[in-house]
Amino acid sequence: MDIKRTPEEQIRFLAGRAAEVMIERIQKEVPQSGSFGNLSVSFMIPETTNRAVLLIEHSLTGTPEQRRLQIGALREGTDCLRSNYLIHDTNENIIKFLEQDDIVEKLIPYYKMHADKLNEE
Question: Half-sphere exposure of residue 27, counting CA atoms within 13 Å on the CB side?
Answer without folding.
Answer: 10
